[in-house]
Design a protein that fits this description.
The chain is an alpha+beta fold and 308 residues long. The protein is built from four helices and 21 strands. Residues 1-19 form the signal peptide.
Length: 308
C-alpha cells in the first residue's frame, strides 16, 4: 500500500513543479511583453504588416515626420518633423517612471541653423548625428546641409558641432553610425551612399559603399543596409524600401524590394532599424496632402527576402 501512495505523492509533486515553472515562464513572458509595450508608447508591436507608430503622439495629422531613432536603452526617442512649407525640427521624448513625456523640440544648434533633421543615436548612446541647414528659401540652402553632432553629458547633450571631416565636402545627410564606429551617410550631390571609417575619433577619409538609394541605414548587426529608391519596375511607385545584404567578400548584394506589404502605392522613405534589430521604421506619405507618418514593422520582413 505504501508504494502506490508514494508514487501518487511523487507524481503530484512533479505536476506542482511543472505548474510553477510554467507560471514563472508565463510571468516572465508577460513582463517582457509589458517592457516591449512601454518602449513604444504602450503600442502593441507589429508583425509582418506595417502599422502607424504612436498616432496622435509622434505621428501627427497635418505634419511630415521623417527619420527616427531610439537610444540603446529605449528610454529616449528622437525624430524630425515639419509642417508644410516649414523648416524641419528635431523632437525628443523620454521615458520617465514608465511614462513618456510629451515630445518637445531639441534645438541642438541653438539657432545657428534654421533646420535640423534626421537625428540618429549612436549604438553606444553617447552621440547623436543629425543634419542641419540654413533656410529653405535661401539660394545656397543645399550647400548648407551638413552633418552635425552632439555628445552626451550626464543628463543633457553638449553644444552642437559641425563634423570636421571630408564627409561634409558635399550636400550630405542621414548620417548613422555602425557598431564599429564607421559612419554611413547619403551624398545627395552624387546620389550615392558613402561610408567614413572611424580612426582615433575622427573621420579622415570617405569612400563609396557601392549601393544606390537614399537614406541608407546600417543595421545593428551590420550585415545589411536598408534604403529607399525609385521602383524602376513600377513607374507609379516613386519610392520603395530596399535592402542590401553584406556578402562574404565584403561587398553588397543586389537590392531586394521589401514587397507589397511594406511598399504601398504611396512613397516610403527614411528607413531605420531599432537598436535591438527587431523593428523597421520608415515614413509613409499616405496622409492627405502627401504628408508622411511613421510606420513600423517586424524586421522579419527583411528575413523573408534574405538569400538562402
Amino acid at each position: 500500500m505504501k508504494k502506490p501512495y508514494f508514487t501518487i505523492c511523487f507524481l503530484v509533486g512533479i505536476l506542482l513543479v511543472l505548474a510553477c515553472n510554467t507560471n514563472k515562464k508565463q510571468q516572465s513572458s508577460d513582463a517582457n511583453h509589458e517592457i516591449t509595450k512601454s518602449r513604444y508608447f504602450g503600442q502593441e508591436p507589429p508583425g509582418l504588416i506595417p502599422e502607424i507608430f504612436a498616432p496622435g503622439i509622434i505621428s501627427l495629422e497635418g505634419r511630415y515626420e521623417h527619420g527616427i531613432s531610439f537610444s540603446p536603452d529605449f528610454k529616449e526617442v528622437y525624430f524630425s518633423a515639419n509642417y508644410e512649407d516649414g523648416e524641419p525640427s528635431i523632437y525628443y521624448a523620454k521615458l520617465e517612471d514608465q511614462k513618456w513625456i510629451t515630445p518637445q523640440k531639441a534645438n541642438f544648434t541653438k539657432g545657428k541653423k534654421v533646420g535640423e533633421m534626421h537625428p540618429m543615436v549612436s549604438p553606444n548612446g553617447k552621440m547623436i548625428h543629425f543634419a542641419a541647414h540654413d533656410s529653405f528659401s535661401l539660394p545656397h540652402h543645399k550647400e548648407s546641409v551638413k552633418t552635425w553632432y552632439v555628445q552626451r553629458l550626464k543628463n543633457s547633450w553638449s553644444q552642437a558641432k559641425q563634423l570636421d571631416s571630408p564627409v561634409n565636402d558635399d550636400f550630405v545627410f542621414y548620417a548613422n553610425e555602425a557598431k564599429n564606429g564607421d559612419l554611413f551617410y547619403t551624398n545627395v550631390s552624387k546620389r550615392k551612399m558613402y561610408v567614413a571609417s572611424k580612426k582615433e575619433n575622427a573621420y579622415p577619409e570617405v569612400q563609396e559603399v557601392g549601393i544606390g538609394g537614399f537614406h541608407g541605414f546600417i543595421a545593428p548587426s551590420q550585415d545589411y543596409i536598408v534604403t529607399n529608391a525609385r521602383n524602376r519596375e513600377d513607374t507609379l511607385r516613386k519610392s520603395d524600401i530596399y535592402v542590401y545584404f553584406k556578402q562574404k567578400d565584403g561587398g553588397w548584394s543586389k537590392p531586394f524590394n521589401l514587397g507589397s506589404e511594406v511598399n504601398s502605392n504611396f512613397s516610403e522613405t527614411c528607413p531605420s532599424i531599432t537598436p535591438d534589430g527587431k523593428y523597421l521604421f520608415f515614413g509613409r506619405y499616405n496622409e492627405e496632402g502627401g504628408l508622411s507618418n511613421f510606420y513600423w514593422v517586424s524586421t522579419k520582413v527583411i528575413d523573408q527576402v534574405r538569400p538562402k
